[in-house]
Fold this protein.
Amino acid sequence: MNYIELTVPDSMRNHGTMWSRWKNRGVPAYLLALVLTGFYVMVYWFPEPLAPLASLLDPLAHLLRGSVADRWFLYGTIYTVAVLVMGARMLLRYRTQRYHVYRTLTLMTVQLMMSYLIPALLARMGSKEFYFSYFWPLKPEYLFPSNISALVQSDNGLLMFMGFWTIAMTVVATPVLTYFYGKRWYCSWVCGCGALAETAGDPFRQNSDKTLAAWKIERWMVHSVLATIVAVTGLIWWANIDPTSPIAPYAHEANRVYGFLIGSVFSGVIGVGFYPLMGARVWCRFGCPMAAVLGLLQKYASRFRITTNGSQCISCGNCSTYCEMGIDVRAYAQRGEDIKRASCVGCGVCATVCPRGVLKLENH
Amino acid sequence: MRIVIIGNGVAGITAARHLRKLSDHEIIVVSDEAPYHFSRPAMMYVSMGHMTFDNTKPYEDWFWKKNRIEVVHNKVRLIRKDGGLVIDLESGPSIDADVVILATGSEPAWYGWQGEHLPGVQGYVNKHDLDLLERNLAGARNAVVVGGGLIGIEAAEVLHSRGVHVAMLVREPAFYRKVFPEEESTMVTQHISRQGIELRCSTELEKIVAGENGGRVDHVISSSGEHIQADIVILATGVKPRIDLARASGVDVSRGILVNDRFETSIPNIYAIGDCAEFETGVQQLWYTARAHGEHVARVIVEGAGPYVRGTYFNSAKFFDLEWQVYGVIPPESDESNSVYWSDDSSTRSVRIAQSNGVVSGVHGIGVRLRQETCVHWIENGTMIDVVRKQFQEAVFDPEFTRKVSV
């Protein structure tokens, strides 16, 4: 379509989104999905072809980590650049909405510092490569006994801090922050997966499935993953406390299988590879155990909800169309009901695209 | 009991849903527009590529069967009395009904202009218009929108988004001046002009002229005698109730289908709701009133509810990037003597609180979202304007971190 933007708009506009073959599952979208899934498969299991590409980053790796660039450094660099570049696009596109400006800047900063520079510098110092923005159960090993006892019992102050940080964030900060702000404090402001979804994934948000059938699958699936990782963590602790127990040999095998199926295939290959086909939150919605925990807290122990403005809804469907989590926001808005859904990551785009000022994210 | 609803717009569908909630009656909805209910105000988002047509459907297609609401895609020819009521369709067998609800909506009000039936000339109110616009847009470079109302501005935004130059003929001296006070009207007028729309105020349509080598529209001639190029003309000079079926079926009509305050027409067991209904006080042609009618008529039919009482007036719209919300009464002649007005430096946000004798009678926001519950509470309880100004933040519904309103 021959759409030309002649003026600088005072609000975010979605002109032509549904005709874009990139954004609406045309051939380019499928090709992009193929490239992304292919890249993840290579990073995880067939890294040899990536070696020359990684070696291009050697000077940067030497500077930051004091070592040569491996495939993980390559992956981390591409990921961070994607968040920063597409974050800039996000800032431009949503510049009239401060909520989006602030959370995008936060996501970009957290990704650059906590998920890229600080872990690299820690590695350079010879310390533990630690990610301060990831917690159990998204990063399950952080609560495994081998990890946690080594950190907490260390006589190195930095390692001790990491140990207490990860426990405090999981046990104290997660429920408290979710009580006050909803799960968005993590999913749309801090999380690295969220950072990529909210920046590089923004052009694809309309591809999430809004049907009731999808919601049923989502609930079943995401809570199964949570149950699995709780069980795996329990097994690992059991095996640690009683190494002679007959289950001990299976604990680490269970963790390995979980790491392969959920950690690599689901969160990586499908989670990012399917951005152009199912929206950017496939992993967050159907697989992430952290999102499941935060979702349960949000639904049953949080002040956060999206409120609706009386009878002003015109049922247009912009909110549902652009909900990356596939929530049928309109179904609530047109009845004047508050939206309190476990999956809502509080990105705030429903409120932005609403042409009648019906939706508002609220904490009180 | 079998209830047949004619029309699947928001009035008819709301009636069907509430009838189902309140009763076990057999419910049939007949429409010739689209097989399933869609949100009419969302049409413009389909034309701009924000949504697909499917996205405009508030309910998934299985919803109707699950809720035992039978959906018939057909055109009603006539409603007859034959013992009970009989509905004749354009094709297929007639349907017997115990109760009929007419929710036939409205249609564009055109005024017999020369050339109004030329190819390329259309309205923008129904599914047919939506599809027609796609055909008319092929190769179009210039368009004229006639009418400075809410449909007119939507049409202008749609055409502009598709790369078509738009000239807009507005009868009033400034956009929406018939409804808006001067400051608001000026703000919106400037905003529309800034988008690149050629806004011609105090101008009406004289006639529409075809090109030399074909039947299609070529230009229009305005009331001031100017020729304005146009490959598309959208006539958005208001709507009128769609009453042909009611009239042919012997139901009393005037401008609309005449009803009392329980939506009863002149024929027993035939009701009329939404845009097509005319009350003693006139027609009510808003999305919100249509929905309220649908809800109330279900209570009348199932529970024998009393009169429908319209609550405090409210409405909303969007003019390109400027959202507008209003509660209560804001007379277009409002000024500093009977209202308080605030606007920010950007000329994209304003609030007006109207008062008489110090009591608040209306609240009006452009670029500022206002909480309906709070504003209506103030108006219905005769709150003093000083109190409202002090408490105004409670009514602000803007997203977090938005700049404060200091009215």
